[in-house]
User: Fold these one by one.
Assistant:
Number 1:
Amino acid sequence: MSEHTQVEMTEMNYGKDRPEAEHRLMIEDLSLRDGHQSLFATRGRTEDMTPVAERMDEIGFWAVEVWGGATFDTMHRFLGEDPWQRLRTLKKYFKKTPFSMLLRGQNLVGYRNYADDVAELFVKKTVDNGMDIFRTFDALNDYRNFETVVPVIKECGAHFQGCICYSLTEPRIGGDVYNLEYYIKKAKALEDMGADSICIKDMAGLLAPYDAYKLIKALKENVKPLIHLHSHCTSGMSPMTHFKAIEAGVDIIDTCMTPYAYRTSHAALEPFVMSLLGTNRDTGFDINALARINDILEKEILPKYKHLLDDTKVSIIDINVLLHQTPGGMLSNLVNQLREMDALDKMDEVLKELPRVRKELGQIPLVTPTSQIVGIQTVNNVLFDTPKERYKMVTAQVKDLCYGLYGKTSVPIDPEVQKKALKGYDRGEEPITCRPAQVLEPELEKARKEIGNLAVDDEDLILYALFPVTGKKFLMQKYGKEKVPESLKPITLEDVANQNKMIEKARKGELVEKVKPEDFPEKSEYARTFNVFIEGDYFEVGVDEVGGAPVITYATAATAATAATAATSPAPAAAPEAPLAQALPVKASAPAPTSAPKPASAAKKEPAPAASSGAPVKAPMPGMVIKYEKNAGDLVNEGETVVVIEAMKMENALPSPASGVIKSVNYKSGDSVAKGDVLAVIE
Ligand code: CO
């Protein structure tokens, strides 16, 4: 097509009755998946999608992305929603627009390669439940990881969209690894696999406008499938990048409805519709209809999510991403992780170490799950390495990567790091070179046996096979065997209004409702007095635990028995229910100033005390217990793995600090633990 997109602008209207453009730009809307995944931690609920679904179906999108990526995980873990049900529900509202999902190749919607039998059944059931287009990517751009899913996608009659993860090692396209030839080669490989369309997946917003022009032109000239651009807004370049891509002849672009747009999400749709109005790339969309959808979202839906927006900064773009090439989601994960570990001051060090770790791990693109793998390993290096020893705490996922379980890295992994990571690795110390899933044993039958009758259908079984710990928890809730925790329930607009009132009160200093002296509770024999010093002020504060004797007494050393009681006390995860006794040290019990109410996740539990005898295995970070490798009474050697905890989806094997006998095991699989909690004691 010509480079000139301008045509005569005659009488224009905003409605749908404009003449069809010569090379109409097609649009995929991402609001209902990547939009809330990028801006609102993937917390979008189905009930907040249905109010606009029918109107969105009328717009004329090429597709709407509604599933995959992190939604599957987040829904069952944090929202108490069955991911499969979302597909079926939305399908009732979207009667003509095809559904698209993000499929992480052999990682499906999880964070590791699953066995072929799981991958095959997953794709089949996903089509059964209403999926039309599989946007398929592999974090390493190793298309051997597509070999299982693609034939199933094709057999089911669905659309196979192959992705090339866009990555750089230089400021611009080029260099030895990610140059134009690299992308053309990858596109041809996808075409050979039968791709119906090819997507450039620019997850960190690194694609610069002129590079996009060059890249899209080259792809249009070299391969036949439709070319699709997915470019995040993080760095601020994306609207310009899309425009140059449109001029270069891109067939489809990804956008979001305005309330779900910009920041780490995608460019908004509406400015494109207006900019292209009356040109040969006119979308043909009805701008008034879009405005009505935005209105509903803005007034009735988004107030419920506003608190999830990262509002720590005024800027809505982050040009730092161009320097460290970290996708937005990964960055906020790193910030959260460091904050929970009281190490936010280490952020600069983490960003400095990150390119080094990436290079040592094979210069891989940074996208889920490699962004987490590289990110968490970097955090571990910064927090736990000593001047004498690097990679002191290697995550299980880095070991898998070094073994070849994710596929072939862009450049070889640093041999020293690889050797260290694979020392004692249970699959063997010699890395593999074949297609990763080839070494994976089938998983379905094992999963079926384990979960038994709790899985009623294949959808349940897949949920369990992909996420054994949280998936089982969800199924217990789904079938009424376990209560759905309050924290998983949705909030209403009324809740939001009440919260806003509280914040307003707090700002005016009226939050603490004064209790009249005649209503004071009686001081018990357990009341203790603390000296509290706050910036030059001194307070003497009496602290009396509500509801009986404190579990831990402050002055005397805790005995092993009380430590065990404290550590196994119920549900340490949800802050509001955390036993107060553990908040005794002055820091936590200082009189709360009249500040805005903190979200539950910000509250922290103080570390459980160490036992008086024996060597404790402490959680070095907050996380969830995956499994204990040792039980009480087992013999253990120093350095042997006692327990595996998951932090930010990465598994960390915690070694025994001493040789001896496991005296106590204080948690069980699925329990949340805080940093410093004693997970086991060795004697
Ligand atoms: Co994305």
Number 2:
Amino acid sequence: MNGSDCLFCKIGSGEIEANIVYETDEVIAFRDINPQAPTHALIIPKRHIATINELEETDAEIVGKLFIAAGEIAGQEGFSEPGYRVTMNCNAAAGQTVFHIHLHLLGGRDFSWPPG
Ligand code: AMP
Ligand code: ZN
């Protein structure tokens, strides 16, 4: 799939509504529709990248910006301390269901390790 029929591209462009918590020219974050924690946001590049496997050297900066956004949203939501979890699933074995990379930011409760 390219970006033209991608749910998260449509959220990034504003074509589909979402509860946005953070936005820059290149990155947008919105609340997950099926939250797994008191705060569960998805942080995406506005530009379509399907999975981690498609990342190229030139994507290093945008991937870094996803993590910068995670730290900023954690601050906004008030859980920088005691902490939070960020996760990116890649392909079916890890449970990826939307093929536009997204960093899950989960906070507001304790998390166990290892994850399921
Ligand atoms: P993953 O399983 O890692 O691909 O995560 C996809 C996430 O997208 C899931 O946590 C879904 O609940 C979430 N999701 C699917 N559709 C929407 C939507 N329209 N708005 C917000 N979150 C969504
Ligand atoms: Zn996309």
